[in-house]
Specification:
Layout: E1 4-13, E2 16-21, E3 24-29, H1 32-37, E4 43-52, E5 57-62, H2 65-75, H3 82-91, H4 94-102, H5 106-109, H6 117-131, H7 139-149, H8 152-162, H9 167-181, H10 187-195
Parallel strand pairs: 3-5
Antiparallel strand pairs: 1-2, 1-4, 2-3, 4-5
Helix pairs in contact: 2-3, 2-4, 4-6, 4-7, 7-8, 7-9, 8-9, 8-10, 9-10
């Protein structure tokens, strides 16, 4: 089983990132937010989930073990396949997904492409108790809540979005920036730190 890949980003095509590992190119399906922030020639590390079917083997890759764990949990829900789970992971990090499920925020889940109210309701019903046991960091969820209510994080995310970055990429970059800069950092400091991580 492949658990992790670390190599150089070769190219991307139709939602798949090709990682060159020692001369072998692995095609990995990644969340759209990761794909948009990936740059050819840069090194990348992905935590891998392998899906084996009769006619294909597909590698799904995630930036963190938490994202991989959330993907696996989402696909355990009846009617939620890898494509739907990846759509959710493309619009929110694992911590934000945990928060949405625990609070019953169906609207946040339906913001993912192809996720309707019925599927979102099933996800909440089946996973509400399970997500609490995962131990996934809620940092992303905290920033998502701050972004929704305004504040420095919201301003930083908005600034990055105005520069052309996706909201998902901006959210992840600001999350990492705030962990580095700490509370009380200025908007400029957060944006500079976030830009170094996109």
């Amino acid at each position: 089983m492949i658990y992790k890949l670390k190599g150089i980003i070769d190219f991307s095509c139709d939602g798949t990132l090709v990682i060159d590992v020692g001369g072998v190119g692995y095609g990995v399906v990644v969340p759209e937010s990761f794909l948009r922030s990936a740059a050819v020639g840069e090194s990348a590390q992905l935590f891998i989930e392998t899906a084996v079917r009769e006619d294909s083997i597909t590698l799904y890759g995630f930036a963190t073990p938490d994202d991989k764990a959330m993907f696996n949990l989402l696909t355990s829900v009846q009617g939620v396949g890898p494509k739907a789970a990846m759509a959710i992971m493309s619009v929110m990090p694992a911590g934000a997904a945990v928060q949405a499920i625990m609070s019953g925020n169906v609207g946040a889940l339906t913001s993912a492409n192809g996720i309707g109210a019925k599927s979102a309701g099933r996800i909440v019903a089946e996973l509400k108790e399970k997500v609490a046991k995962l131990g996934i960091s809620m940092a992303g969820a905290e920033i998502s809540r701050e972004a929704a209510s305004g504040g420095v994080a919201a301003d930083a995310i908005s600034a990055l979005a105005n520069m052309g970055y996706s909201r998902a990429s901006a959210l992840m970059a600001v999350e990492k920036a705030l962990l580095e800069t700490g509370e009380g950092a200025s908007l400029g400091e957060i944006i500079r730190a976030a830009l170094s991580r996109i």
